[in-house]
Amino acid sequence: MTHFEALGGEARLRAIIDRFVDRIFDDVMIGFHFRNASRERVKAKELEFAAAHLGAPVRYTGRPLPAAHAPHPITGGQFERRLKILEEVLEEFDAPPAVREHWIAHTRGLRNSILRGGGGRCDDELRRLR
Question: What pLDDT, on the 0 to 100 scale, is given for residue 124?
């Protein structure tokens, strides 16, 4: 069974992504990054991306992550805020522990693709403290 199936399939994943994207768009710490973005487009790409890494027969059709995020000065703290929102939404939807662990680990693994230069000294210290 894939993580996608364990989660409950497309309808359940869509509900999680809808809630997650709404939360990041409306968040006071990171929402400004999305002020010029289409909420529906971000939801569609997040759905594709998540479905693909969770094992669904779906192909991600968005731009490569480094190219998509390069114009944005995303800090380590902002990356961690997005990750915290994801954790909260997965908990809110009572996602199975194995799915949560996979999704969070997968997202953490994207850090260097998203941050300019992979972060900084403060980010390194935060990781060391975990």
Answer: 52
Domains of the chain: 3-129 (1.10.490.10)
Contact 111, 71 (CB under 8 A): no
At 69 the pLDDT is: 86
Sequence-distant (≥ 6) Cβ neighbours of residue 69 within 8 angstroms: 113, 114, 115
Crossing angle (nearest 10°) for helices 39-53 and 97-108: 110
Return d(Cα 30, Cα 77) in angstroms, integer: 9
Sign of CA dihedral 84, 64, 105, 58: positive
Tokens standing for 49?
């991306």
What does pTM read for this prediction? 0.87
